[in-house]
Amino acid sequence: MNRAHIFMALLGLAFACPSIARADAIVVTKAMTASTIAEIFIDQGMIRVELEIGVGDLNGFRSIMPDELYERLGHDPVRLAERIPRFFAEDWVIRVDGGDPLVGRIMRLEPGHRIKRDEGTGPAAHRRRGCLCDFGEGVLSFACEYGTGRRRQ
Q1: Which of 36, 40, 29 lies closest to 115, judged by CA?
Q2: CA of 97: how far to CAs of 41, 89, 91, 115, 150, in Å?
Q3: Domain range annotation of the chain
Q4: Phi then psi for 55, rounded to 5 degrees?
Q5: What does the pLDDT average to over 129-151?
Q6: In three state form, how does the secondary structure of 57-100 look?
Q7: Are 140 and 111 in contact (CB under 8 A)?
Q8: Would the pLDDT of 125 be above 60?
């Protein structure tokens, strides 16, 4: 039996016995088509932010650009080490319960490729081992962490 026959049999079963067929809504947002994608992970004691910064948004994240790219975008030379505190204090501020801005630290800042995501649900799409076609457009891959000072009880 080929896949089409199996699919038709399952579809017929679902219509014949609707009590055993359960559906789940899939909301299509197309957020994964944005130039920059952020994933934020919140745990007690830590917040992790991962960004895929697209070429169209590089200037908006100029405070964390490597020095060479920062200058190539037309900015006066200011070392990355001097720009990072401004990024966490002014550009990408995270507060807990309206308190003072959390102090972040950069965990990753490197050129990368956009992670291909499922267009319906957003998670990373299945990758075939060793297939170069799995890589998307070039992005600046960035990850940072913030300690919240809160621990599990």
Answers
A1: 36
A2: 17, 16, 19, 32, 12
A3: 26-147
A4: -55, -40
A5: 72
A6: HHHHHHHHCCHHHHHHCCCCCCCHHHHHHHHHHHHCCCECCCCC
A7: yes
A8: no
Q: Model pTM?
A: 0.66
Task: Tell me the pairing of strands 46-53 and 135-147.
Answer: antiparallel
Q: What is the mean pLDDT of the chain?
A: 79
Of 95, 76, 141, give the one whose Cα is nearest residue 114: 141
Measure the CA–CA gap between 30 and 39, rounded to whole angstroms: 15
Backbone phi, psi, residue 56, to 5°: -65, -15
Of 84, 66, 67, residue with least CA distance to 76: 67
DSSP assignment string, the chain? --HHHHHHHHHHHHHH-TTT----------GGGSSSEEEEEEETTEEEEEEEE-GGGGGGGGGGS-HHHHHHTTPPP--HHHHHHHIIIIIS--BSTT-SBPPEEEEEEEEEEEEPB-TTT-SBPP--TT-GGGEEEEEEEEEEEEE-S----
